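Write out the bound-state structure for iron/sulfur cluster.
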Amino acid sequence: MKTKWRANSTHPDDMSRYREWLKVRNCRWPISITIHLTNRCNHDCKFCWFDRNDSRVDVQKTIAAISFLIDRGLQEVIVSGGGEPTLHPELELLLEFLADRSDIHRRLYSNGTKLGKLTTICKAFDYVRVSVDAFNPESHSTIHGTSRTAFGQIIDALRDLSSSNVTVGLSCVLIPESDQGLSDLAELSEMNPNFFSCSKKG
Ligand code: SF4
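---
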């Protein structure tokens, strides 16, 4: 199994700025990394652009690599997925490691239905972004290809996250099917996210 590393932003303009920054700071090592823990996912979004399968990274090697990079100036770890990162069977190991690394920024990007024990998540990360992509159970079920109860689980998790110390982000990819729930947008805003990003697709 292969660990995938990439710079946080791959937009050509951002990359050239990043390279310039590295030159000016005489820095040879990345300051931010994104780890795609697993390609597995429990959802089936209409807009999903990932090649979902059961591949996953070796968590022990990932921890060793993060430690190596922290010693060389790494400032941020983003745990994300070509799938849903919380489905990695050895997630707990990584969470334990990250809980002791509050000296760096630690972000989690998730679809929000398998966050499990939020106290553990809140110790391991200082920012949690949940991809909601819908505004009510019906539209969420249609867009994410999951059960109608999933939306309620996400709302419960968001409510708990909002009352914790972590910074909370919500993200929505808007597709034509999103229109059916737009009138319920206000309910999501009541979760008091610190960041709310929407992007249009299709
Ligand atoms: S939650 Fe993410 S990885 Fe899973 S199906 Fe949706 S877009 Fe794809």
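---
The first strand starts at residue 5 and ends at 6.
The pocket of iron/sulfur cluster is lined by residues 41, 43-45, 48, 50, 81, 83-84, 111, 131 (CB under 6 Å).
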